[in-house]
Each structure stands twice: as C-alpha cells, then as structure tokens.
Amino acid sequence: MNIDAIEAAAARLAGHARRTPLLSSPFLDEIAGRPVHVKAECLQHTGSFKFRGAWSAISALPEGTRGVIAFSSGNHAQGVALAAKLHGLPSVIIMPSDAPALKRANTAALGAEVILYDRATEDRDAIGERLAEERGLSLVRPFDDAQVIAGQGTCGLEIAAQAAELGIERATMLTCCGGGGLTSGIALALEARAPGIKVRTVEPEDSDDVARSLAAGELLRNAFQSRSICDAIITPAAGKLTFPIMQRLCGPGLSVRDEECLKAVALAFLRLKIVLEPGGAAALAAALFHGDALDDGPVIVTASGGNVDPAIFARALETLPD
Amino acid sequence: MNIDAIEAAAARLAGHARRTPLLSSPFLDEIAGRPVHVKAECLQHTGSFKFRGAWSAISALPEGTRGVIAFSSGNHAQGVALAAKLHGLPSVIIMPSDAPALKRANTAALGAEVILYDRATEDRDAIGERLAEERGLSLVRPFDDAQVIAGQGTCGLEIAAQAAELGIERATMLTCCGGGGLTSGIALALEARAPGIKVRTVEPEDSDDVARSLAAGELLRNAFQSRSICDAIITPAAGKLTFPIMQRLCGPGLSVRDEECLKAVALAFLRLKIVLEPGGAAALAAALFHGDALDDGPVIVTASGGNVDPAIFARALETLPD
After folding, report:
1. What would the DSSP string read from start to end of A149-197?
2. What letter does residue A71 receive in the DSSP assignment?
3. Over the stretch B3-20, which tens digit does the pLDDT of each residue have?
C-alpha cells in the first residue's frame, strides 16, 4: 500500500464522492484551548466516509463483475448499496435480523437486496459464501482491503490540501477508529503529502483494541462485546492490512467515554451545524476533552459519520445548557 | 448593482468566507419527485450566509474606519461581530433586551459590544444614531445596502459554478427570503452566470410581504407581527434596493407553513446531516412539499442558516416517524 493507490482511487472517485469541508468554530477552539479543524465526512454521500472505500473497491472490480455483497448493519452497508447502484451493479447486504429498521429501510431504498440472518442460530459467513458463489458476487470488505483503504485515504489527501490552504504544517490528526480503514488510509496519505501531521486513533473506552494493540506491538482483540453507543466504530479487532500501517505511522491511541461523545455531538450541532453520530464524534470529543494527552498545536479530527437515531440525538442535545 | 460588484465582493471574501457545499440525497429527490440540491449556508462562518454580506460591507469601508454598528438580534449580529473582529475593528450590536440569551452570549463572545434596549420604551434608531455619531461608527445594514447585497451574491456565484459542475443549465432556485438581500444577490449572480436558473422567493405564510409585493408590483409591508417560528426571515418589508432587483428577476413568490419548515429541518437532519433553523429550511420545505407550484426540472434551494434553539430542533425531530 502506498500513495499511488490512494491517488488512483482519488482519480476514480473524482466527480462521484464529495470533497467535504474542513470546518471550525472559535467556540470549539476556546473549549479545546487550540485550533480545532473538523473534516465533515458526515456530509459525504450516505452520511459517512464509507462511500469512499465502497466506490474505490467497486470501481476497481474487473469488467464482467456480476454484483457485490457485503456484511454490515451500518454505514458500510449504505455506502456499498449506493456505490453499487451508481455502477449499475446489484448488491446484496447481509444484516443481522435485529438491525435497526431505519438502517434496513435505507439500505434497501438505496437499491440493495437486504438479507437478514439470525445472529443466534445462523452463520453469517456461510450465508455470504453460498450467495457469493451461487450468484457470482464479489465481496466488499468493510476495512481490510487495499482498495477500501485507498478509498478512505482520499479523505487524507483532501485533509492534506485543506491544511496547506490554512497554512498548517504541523498538527495532530485524530481519527474515529473501528477496523482502521479510515485511519490507515489517512495515515498513508498524510505520510506522503503532509508529513508534519501525525495521526492518533480515538476509540470508545470499552472497545479500545487498537490503542492496546499499538501499546502491545501486536494485534489484540476486544475481550467482550462493547456496550458503547459508538456502534459505528466498534469492531472485534483491526485488520491484517490496517494494523501494520497504523503501527508504523500512528502515535499512542486515545479513548473517550460515551458521555464525552454525546457532548461532542451536541457541540457539533451548536457550533458547526453538522449532525454526527456518537462514534463519528469520538475524535472531536478527544480534541475537546483530552487535550492534555496531545502535543501542542492545532488538531484536525474526522467527523466520520452522521447516521444517528433521532432519539440518541435528542439525548445529546440535553447535554447543552439551557 | 451588477455582476461586477459581486465579483469584487468575491475577491474580498476569498480565503475568508467558506465555499459551502451543494448537497443532495436520493431520499429527498424521491419526496420532491425531482432532483433537489441544497446550498448549505448553515455551514458558513457564524452559521448563516450573513457572514458574506457583513464581510463584504466591512471590507469595503474606507481606511480609517473606527468601528461598525448594527441592529440585529439574530444571524446578522453574529456575522457582523465576527467579520468586524477579523478586520480588527470594534463592533457594537444593538439588540432588544428580550433577545435570546444564547444569541446575546454568542454575539458578545465573537467580540461585539452588545447594547440592549427596551422595545416598548426606547427608540432603537435614536440609540444607534447617537452611538454612531459619538464613536464614529459605520452602520452595517442587514440587507438594503449595495455591498451587503454583493456579498450575499457571492453565494449565487458559487451556485452557478456548482450547478455547471453538475451539468444543470435550467432549474428553479428557491431562496429563503426576509429583506431580500440574499435573494437579490443570488438573482443578480445567476442572471449573469447561469441565466437558465430562475429565482423564486419562499416566505412564512403570515409574513409573505415579498410574494404580495411581487404580485402587486409595489413594495408592501406586513400588516402585523408574524408569529412564525421562522424568525430569521421575518422582516417588516423588503428594501428599496432589494425589491426592484427581485421585481425584475424573480418569479411569483411562494409561502410555507411552520409545520412544513419543521419537517424540512427534520429531513435535512436525517438525509443531509446538516442543522437548519426553521427559517433556513423554508426553501427546502417549498421544494419538498409545494412541487406542484414549480416548473418541471431540478430545484436548488438555499439552506440559509442553522442557528436554531435545541428545543425547537428537538420539536422538529418529533415529526420523524419512529
């Protein structure tokens, strides 16, 4: 994996993915005690950065591809469904039968065939393999795939260019981190295009496998199922491709509490006028409330997704003073 | 007023105002039955397009200007306060004493001196004139000023360029309309740069002075104080500069109900991941719920501001199905 793959993905995404804005507010700078710049990937198609990786992977498939398949109950599902539809390809998304009705409906409305399975009694991978073989479908992995990482890396290319426009040469880049696709893509892009911007991961405190893995020097899994509301960035473990990249390029991992993410959601509403889901606000929460763990200087954060249930958003708003 | 003034304002705003994105969602297209493109000015500095006009006016003041003064309890106040601060000029904002505490606090935090007056017993204009004379301050009008209109017109230049990128030559442009600064600026910019895009105004139904004025062919005032929640676009009447421009360039005015604006706020949350105030969602509401009053073809709308009270936003979210 290197910058060439990311540049090639950027060429394939041009005119299809959005160049999302880098936002800021003097009110957030004051809370953080330093300049904070927010890469608003919630404004990407389907409401998260996942569209980039999905488009990158699908646009790199060989001619004659008959369709794609993905496992996801969340943002990856919607990104794959829309990217496949825009390529004129059928998509099958395999979701647990207890996935939220809204996410199922959205994914189906974006043109995917949604197939539900029972987490307790059925084997997801077996269902996927059978369908892929029967129908000749190509699997689009959520993060551990070179083309997916390259697609997410296009977000890093934009950050490098936007930071240069602002005159920022040295900064800390905080990423909301699940499996590490976005983090490793951004880290590769910044290594090549903005080497003074150093990446650190942010995770929910009860799902901090990447922070522990970086500290231990080996790929560790989460011991138990997280109960965090940051569902978008909860994964059992980082990937075989993503972890070595993070190990080479990222500083120590950070973690945040759910309450801090809810406060960051509310402050992004109040000061930036963007809608974030809790997992998409984790990096902003770290910038606002864990500045003591960061080097001096400006911070850039990913606001990686905005697919939040209205009830959770209403809860976040309650954290604001009257 | 012509396109040259807008181009000159754009040169002064370059690197200071944000180029806001033009957003869309297949879900909104489906509701509207046509493509809908949303110019997200809520993402502008201070959360509304008002920063453009304020920057344009303040950057055009003569050398030696000692400071600025404005009357506003809302978005204009914040735009002027920040633009003045960034020019290194003091600002005085005159607000009614019953203005929301958050707006007062925001305006003060952006560097303005906030002076409160009692709507019932004090004469706002007299206070402003006395202060302007005593301190040598320049008045920044909210809409009826050539440099303010030129600044808002930069939004129209961006729309023309963004529509061209999408291959849109003919469309209806719907603007959230109060005093007509944004509308007339956009109309002038589109006349010169995208003449196939025709502007129509959108107002709250109990504050539809521009629609009535356009129909009557003369400048009419609202007969009574509106009770709409769309406070950002409630004004007694359009301006002596803005109305003739709208009369020459705009089609018949539209109006929307408060409930429709709340639904549009909720749909912008759900589908675009942006935060709108009710008045900033009026044009989107017309696109979604009044398509029968529009010519065929794509619609572009201004999402002109996002400075909404959390309680009102929570009310909007309640309009979404579970």
Report:
1. HHHHHHHHHHHHHHHHHTT--SEEEEEE-SSSHHHHHHHHHHHHH-TTE
2. E
3. 999 999 999 999 999 999
Euclidean distance between CA atoms A163 and A166, whole angstroms: 5
**Burial level of B108, CB count in 10 A (0-12/13-18/19+)?**
middle
Report pLDDT digits (tens) over A94-153: 998 888 787 889 999 999 999 999 988 888 888 988 999 999 999 999 999 999 999 999
At residue B70, the 3 state secondary structure works out as strand
ipTM entry: 0.96
Q: Is there a contact between B23 and A43 if contact means CB atoms under 8 Å apart? A: yes
pLDDT tens digits for range A251-285: 999 999 999 999 999 999 999 999 999 999 999 99
Using a CB–CB cutoff of 8 Å, tell me whether A164 touches chain B.
Answer: no
User: A43 vs B47: CB contact, 8 Å cut-off?
Assistant: no
CB pairs under 8 A between A and B: 68
Type of residue at B139: L
Determine which of A150-164, A165-179, A222-236 has the lowest per-residue pLDDT on average. A222-236
Cβ-Cβ contacts under 8 Å, B276 against chain A: 273
Radius of gyration of the CA atoms of chain A, in A: 18
Q: Report the residue from B18, B82, B269 with minimal CB separation from A275.
A: B269
Higher pLDDT, A119 or A165: A165
Q: How far is CA A143 from CA A56, A149, B43, B60, B302, in A?
A: 12, 6, 30, 50, 36
Give the whole-angstrom CA distance, residue A251 versus residue A254: 9
Q: Where are the alpha helices (DSSP H) in chain B?
A: 3-13, 26-32, 50-59, 75-86, 101-109, 124-135, 146-165, 181-193, 209-216, 242-249, 258-272, 282-289, 310-317
Dump pLDDT digits (tens) for A18-66: 999 999 999 999 999 999 999 999 999 999 999 999 999 999 999 999 9
Q: Indicate yes or no: CB of B273 within 8 angstroms of CB of A270.
A: no
Please name the residues in contact with A286: beta carbons below 8 A apart, sequence gap of 6 or more.
A174, A202, A254, A256, A260, A293, A294, A301
CB proximity A82 to B under 8 Å = yes
Is the Cβ pair A21, B20 closer than 8 Å?
yes
Best to test chain A binding among B29, B273, B307 (most A CBs inside 10 Å): B273
CB contact under 8 A, A306 and B273: yes
| Helix, strand, coil share (%) of chain A residues, nearest 5 | 50, 15, 35
Domains of chain B with bracketed CATH:
3-49+145-317 (3.40.50.1100), 50-139 (3.40.50.1100)
Q: CA nearest B34: which of B295, B263, B319, B266?
A: B295
Answer whether A275's CB lies under 8 Å from B275's CB: yes
Please state the separation of Cα B161 from the chain's center in Å: 20
In the numeric block, which tokens belong to residue B233? Answer: 């676009």
Give the neighbor-by-neighbor strand order of the sheet with B22-23.
Answer: B22-23, B36-40, B299-303, B171-176, B197-204, B254-256
Helical (H) or strand (E) element with A210: helix A209-216
**Three-state DSSP class for A129?**
helix
Residue A181 phi, psi dihedral angles, 5° rounding: -65, -50
Check pLDDT > 90 for residue B124. no
Place of tokens 């919630």: A42
Residue A280, class by beta-carbon neighbours within 10 Å (0-12 exposed, 13-18 middle, 19+ buried)? buried
Q: Provide the pLDDT for residue A123.
A: 85
* CB proximity B313 to A under 8 Å: yes
Say how many Å lie between the first and final Cα of chain A, rounded. 49
Tokens at residue B220, please? 């009419």
Report angle CA B214, B308, B6 to the nearest 5 degrees: 50
